Amino acid sequence: MGDLLAARSQMAVSLGFHILFAVVGIAMPVLMVIAEARWRRTGDSMYLELAKRWAKGTAILFAVGAVSGTVLSFELGLLWPGFMRFAGAIIGMPFSLEGFAFFTEAIFLGVYLYGWSRISGRAHLVAGVFVAVSGAASALFVVIANAWMNSPAGFHMANGVPVNIDPIAAMLTPAAFPQVLHMLLASYAATGFAVAGIHAIMLLREPQNVFHQRALAIALIVGVPAAILQPISGDVSGRYVARWQPTKLAAMEGQFRTEAGAPLRIGGIPDVDAQRTRYAIEIPYGLSLMAFHDPHAVVRGLEAFPRDQWPPVPIVHVAFQVMTGLGTLLALVAVWVAITAWRRRDVASHRSLLRAIAVASPVGFICIEAGWVVTEVGRQPWVIYGVMRTADAVTPMPGLIVPFLVISALYCFLGVIVVWLLYDLVMRSPTMRGGEGPPPTSITSAG
Known about the structure:
Blueprint: H1 2-42, H2 45-79, H3 81-114, H4 121-150, E1 156-158, E2 161-163, H5 167-171, H6 176-205, H7 210-244, H8 246-253, E3 259-260, E4 264-266, E5 269-271, E6 276-278, E7 281-283, H9 286-292, E8 298-299, H10 313-342, H11 351-360, H12 363-377, E9 382-384, E10 388-389, H13 390-393, H14 401-427
Antiparallel strand pairs: 1-2, 3-8, 4-7, 5-6, 9-10
Helix pairs in contact: 1-2, 1-4, 1-6, 1-7, 1-14, 2-3, 2-7, 2-14, 3-4, 4-6, 6-7, 6-11, 6-12, 7-8, 7-10, 8-10, 10-11, 10-12
């Protein structure tokens, strides 16, 4: 059991570290492409400076993401041989396509970084678009593979072995669309607001800095629509979970009893022994309405399932509350930004809104980490839902605590280096103020 915990902990640390670079790799190329397109359209040198700086940041994060992703690929084979032996032939296609997308992204990122004066402007911009599309495609295929683990399909079982494998059906499981939609929107919202938060902090110090005004506007153009749409994708995901993974839904909501018109709980601490969720604010009929769009629908509680199939309920419930609570906060800030822009007010000069954006800057990444806890821990005790238990997939190799500590230390070292490089990149930004160059641009005119 100790080895199982060490293997799961190592995978959790690796995933938790890598996912931050993965989501930034999805969204940052969009920012740099918008900045370059604005430069080519307006001739404003601040946009060119932004495009080049964001390209450098993308390259740094891409390099570290490639390292952490390589570690993950080795861990899948070394730590989870039972899983790979069973699932390799089924999910090999999305992983192969992810590899193709990754190499495409790397090639065009190289063209983008070194092609400023070597290829035509249109070709250079197209290269940036390919970086953005390849980054999104890479994430899409990885999430599809994870979706298969939540709703396995595309094979039949014969004597404990998968046969009649259909890789296309395995990629098009019921979980694929909800997870892909939720993950892509989360990536754009988290990265957009993280970048906007950095520049909002700088604008609170230097309100007339044109560079940070331009950067804030572009970051919000990416982050605001995604954050507003995210609750809708959350509803789609919630209805999928209610239908296909009712045990996970019950754990997420702290729902121990099967009942019609189940309440929606805000907060609370699940007491597994007493089979009740204490200290929660309950909204009558809310869970039935949210999960099934019917206030009187029956929601199956944890009592309807064998005890050995329950996930760690307190962890799943708290992670879900963090994800939904902070996600709602991010959406509200996004709505505030959208209303301000709609009224033709300059977001960059609204100090209260700048403070809110600054506070919200890490929120998206916290939501992503909490969401993956819900997805992965909520599926337990299954590594492949309803097919293979986690205990049957892990390596029997002892002494996993040592590589766990070594790899964790490596990630900490890489994290410190990345933070320092990005900090240096931000702090060396131009100090041009309004009146010294082109006039400031609000979010309403940066699109």
